């Protein structure tokens, strides 16, 4: 999946917490959010904050779909609220390869 495709898919599925997301889809979208936020921060902290807030729901949705891709519930994102260790646990799960799951087709690709 390319950078542009992942941005399109994640923005099209703005608040869709169902299905799965591949590693590349999730991480390209995360990179997009960081780059745009930093770029806007150069000009205005307010614009960067507005963009980050606008991307909160799609980033949570993409992370939930990514966790689904490794057969974990999207609710596991809440573990990141545990100081320090929670962030690393969720990060570890987000970098895992695709696994058979109960949430739909693997990484959004229809089975043949």
Automatic annotation (TrEMBL):
Transmembrane parts of this sequence: 26-54, 75-95
Record's keyword annotation contains rRNA-binding = no
Q: What keywords appear on the UniProt entry?
A: Membrane, Transmembrane, Transmembrane helix
Q: Which GO terms describe its cellular component?
A: plasma membrane
Q: Which domain of life is it from?
A: Bacteria
Indicate whether Transmembrane appears among the record's keywords.
yes
Q: Which InterPro entries match?
A: DUF805
Protein name according to UniProt: DUF805 domain-containing protein
